[in-house]
Design brief:
alpha+beta; 4-stranded mixed β-sheet; 6 helices
């Protein structure tokens, strides 16, 4: 898997760093130990973070600024890490999915980075290219239907959009049958670093998804 960037990404978000992780996995139901980690992290956020401070967390703030630079209102189209953190701070139950989706959500809660996770066998071609969503570009967001991605940073394969920091696409989403994984860690700010975040994901993939053949590459536009 290779990552490319359209020119507008380098112009509008020159600080962006992306870690691309590929691995062979077994995507099983979420382990109770993993769910306990998520529960404890959610409780810590609820105990230490005010709701009005969520959008000021470094990684979330950096992603929101990128949205504004691309022409998207981050209050109407929140980055996924912000939406997840707000839910935790409000004390609402988090959605339980499967081991890989939930460990990605855990790292998003820990770091504030919005992270894409895709089934490699559903990606068309060997390249993902980051660009900006166009007016009326079709996009089916996971669990929310048609999403207006105009002005959102969007990863595309040879067919179309597969992921944005707001939501990934139904077409390439993970399932219990997923055996080959692609993860994009979208770091619009320097902290926590793409490398540190990818190493955390690696560890969790080994622990909770029996990951093998793990490969990590760092990209900048």
């Amino acid at each position: 898997m290779r990552l490319l960037f359209e020119d507008i990404i380098g112009q509008k978000a020159p600080q962006l760093t992306v870690a691309c992780i590929t691995a062979d996995i077994v995507n099983e139901p979420t382990d109770e130990t993993l769910w306990e980690e998520i529960t404890q992290t959610s409780q810590r956020l609820k105990d230490t973070l005010a709701i009005e401070s969520v959008n000021k967390c470094p990684a979330i703030l950096a992603t929101r600024r990128a949205y504004k630079d691309f022409g998207k209102d981050p209050n109407r189209y929140r980055p996924s890490a912000e939406a997840l953190t707000r839910r935790a701070v409000k004390g609402l139950d988090l959605y339980r999915s499967d081991s890989v989706v939930d460990l990605i959500n855990l790292v998003s809660l820990e770091t504030g980075h919005s992270i894409g996770a895709f089934d490699r066998d559903k990606i068309n071609g060997d390249t993902l290219t980051l660009g900006v969503g166009r007016a009326n570009e079709p996009y089916e967001a996971i669990g929310r239907g048609a999403l207006n991605i105009e002005g959102l940073p969007v990863w595309r394969d040879s067919t179309g959009g597969v992921g944005t920091p707001t939501s990934d696409n139904e077409r390439t989403k993970l399932s219990h049958t997923t055996r080959r994984l692609v993860v994009t860690v979208n770091c619009y700010g320097d902290y926590p670093s793409a490398l540190d975040t990818s190493q955390r994901i690696e560890k969790l993939l080994v622990q909770y998804a029996s990951a093998t053949n793990i490969d990590v590459k760092i990209y900048r536009p």
